[in-house]
């Protein structure tokens, strides 16, 4: 599997099978929505499924599927400034940019920077802890106002 891509539907089905889970229409619809959205909260995934899929879902079932997949490592999750849980379909090492006006996450893929940070942290000690990973989030606002036409 490509380290800079989320699992395809076929790879996702294999992951489900590996964990003895059925590839239900709801699970497949959630993953298809996540593939198109990248970062999303359960509301966004539910709305996308209702617009683009025939699978019957509720907000609660979508949230449960997203949470279960995050616990299995299929997705990552992060809390936004507006206290919503957002799920990330990309689990490879990368940096996030958070747009605090629009509550949107974007991936910043910079392998060179990630290697530099890992190298630097490998020489650091935090008394009483072992550093296992890091999570960097840049926060900003759009530089231009959106103009209505």
Secondary structure layout:
Layout: H1 9-18, H2 25-37, E1 39-40, H3 42-52, H4 59-71, E2 76-79, E3 85-88, E4 95-99, E5 104-108, H5 111-122, E6 137-140
Parallel strand pairs: 4-6
Antiparallel strand pairs: 1-3, 2-3, 4-5
Highlighted features:
three-stranded antiparallel β-sheet, three-stranded mixed β-sheet, Arc Repressor Mutant, subunit A, 149 residues, 2 domains, globular, alpha+beta
Task: Tell me what the structure shows.
By secondary structure, the protein is α+β, with helices and mostly antiparallel strands. Helix content is 40%, strand content 16%. The protein has 5 helices and 6 strands, in the order ααβααββββαβ. The protein has helices at residues 9-18, 25-37, 42-52, 59-71, 111-122, and strands at 39-40, 76-79, 85-88, 95-99, 104-108, 137-140. The strands form 2 sheets. It has a 3-stranded antiparallel β-sheet with strand order 1-3-2. A hairpin with a 4-residue loop joins strand 4 and strand 5 (104-108). Helix 2 (25-37) packs across helix 3 (42-52) and helix 3 (42-52) packs across helix 4.
**What topology, given as strand order, has the largest sheet?**
1-3-2
Largest sheet: 3 strands, antiparallel
Rg measurement, Å: 17 Å
CATH class of the largest domain: Mainly Alpha
Shape: globular
What is the oligomer described by this structure? Answer: single chain
Total helix count?
5
Structural class: alpha+beta
Strand content: 15-25%
> What is the residue-averaged pLDDT?
88
Report how far apart the termini are.
43 Å
Percent helix range:
25-40%
CATH superfamily membership of the largest domain: Winged helix-like DNA-binding domain superfamily/Winged helix DNA-binding domain
Give the topology string: H per helix, E per strand: HHEHHEEEEHE
């Amino acid at each position: 599997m490509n380290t800079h891509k989320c699992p395809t539907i076929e790879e996702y089905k294999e992951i489900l099978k590996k964990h003895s889970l059925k590839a239900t229409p709801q699970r497949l619809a959630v993953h298809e929505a996540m593939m198109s959205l990248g970062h999303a909260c359960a509301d966004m995934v539910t709305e996308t499924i209702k617009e683009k899929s025939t699978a019957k879902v509720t907000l609660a079932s979508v949230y449960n599927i997203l949470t279960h997949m995050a616990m299995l490592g299929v997705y990552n999750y992060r809390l936004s400034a507006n206290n919503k849980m957002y799920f990330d379909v990309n689990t490879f090492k990368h940096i996030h940019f958070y747009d605090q006006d629009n509550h949107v996450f974007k991936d910043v893929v910079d392998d060179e920077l990630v290697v530099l940070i890992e190298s630097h942290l490998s020489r650091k000690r935090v008394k009483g802890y072992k550093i296992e990973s890091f999570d960097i989030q840049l926060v900003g606002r759009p530089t231009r106002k959106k103009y209505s036409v």
